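Q: Two folds, back to back.
A: First:
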Amino acid sequence: CGSLCGLYHSPKMLMNILTQSKVITYADCLAQMYFFLVFAGLDNFLLMAMAYDRFVAICHPLHYTVIMSPRLCVLLLLLSWILSLLNSLLHSLMVTQLSFCTDHTIQHFFCDLPQVLKLSCSDNLVNNVLAYMLAGLIGIVSITGIFFSYSQICSSILKVPSAGGKYKAFSTCGSHLSVVSLFYGTGLGVYFSSSVIHSSWKSTVASAMYAVVTPMLNPFIYALRNKDIKDALRKVISRKTSFQ
């Protein structure tokens, strides 16, 4: 799902580069902001659900099929979608209540919520407070759930007597931990640096890493768990070394 975060604004960005046009309509800007918030929120909830799945698989392997039943999986997915859609809808509706100044230049490569709020001529204090409060709440809940799951996983792995068993348990979590590190590392870096870095160009580059580069890397990270892909990658590397 991480790949979907950049799916809506990346085509528009590429079209702007090709046509040398930097214009976006008000409706398109709202739609871009809405879908970005949906998929960003969905990423948070799904990463937490995946951490819980790893926790059950490693800490309660004999009860995995009972606990992680298809019904629970569907429920977690539906809950993630509903919360993400409601959060995004609330922000989008509140933005429509604002009036905007004559200068409509967004110092960004897509319609990010904080950048859109900066263009408002009306009082946007409530919007800003709500944006930071909900973002903090979603982030704290997700990170706490992931941290708790992995603390239990590490505790269980350390009790495994064999080194092979420990490696196998850790390898099942490797791809998920890589995606979690990329997602939260770049995300926190962007929003913490935005308060320190005053250069709009540097802030845009940092945001591109978070919104475009990171989602593009997710499929490759998960693909490396596939044995066939690993074997193909080893063959390519061995051929290159033999030619050299």
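A: Second:
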Amino acid sequence: MTAPDTADHRPRVVVITGGGTGIGAAAAARYAADGDAVVILGRRLAPLQEVAEATGAHPIVADSSDRLSSEAAIAEVVQRFGHLDVLVANAGGHGFAAAAETDDEAWVQSFDGNVTTAFTIARAALLHLEASGGQIVMVSSLAGLFAGPSVVGYTVGKHALIGLTKSLARDYSPRGVRVNAVCPGWVRTPMADGEMDEFASHAAHIDDREAAYAEITKDVPLQRAAEPTEIASVIRFLGSQESSYITGATIVADGGAHIVDLPTLGFEHAGM
């Protein structure tokens, strides 16, 4: 077990939004394995309880896009544990359509789900993180750097998270709070599994989910999707003293996808 980062060796307190599934659940397990006190937030109790039973994390049902809900959750954390050291803003999703097919309600939902969730919970936590010299880790996406087809809300939201990361780092790092973002590529989460299933249902040459993952990642240098635990390790690094001189950064964890020169793929597929 890794010793906590604080000078007095107290267990660190880590809050993770979207902690009931996927990357959030993996981050909860990663921090808990280091002996940290982990709090997982989400809107659905059942998945939170499942992660809590597996990791020992403390579950709180909360909507991190809502000011009152976020403030109440952070207040409960501080009342229960006495301090707050790390915030992982992982909640996200929504926005899977092109602009002309995105109505006002869907647009607001995508922005709330991907950006407001992070802003609102960070605002509620900042004073406590200042007091502890803590960290914020924003979970953006490769979609925060590039645009995929028919995902306008998700793309804009994840881009905005990087801007939020930079703004928070600029304003609050002088006060002792480091803020960084991680941009995963394809990760084997329930959301990605659903996208692979849909892809397989529309592609004549794709038989199942595994074939879909193989097809989607064939031009990624590592030629596979990430496991949630791999992204959790990056989150753990950014939300610890091991990254003590890093703030305002965007760390890409995508198997090398972002280094590929797309216009040259035709040459490779032609065997040249």
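Q: And?
A: Residues 186-225 form one domain.
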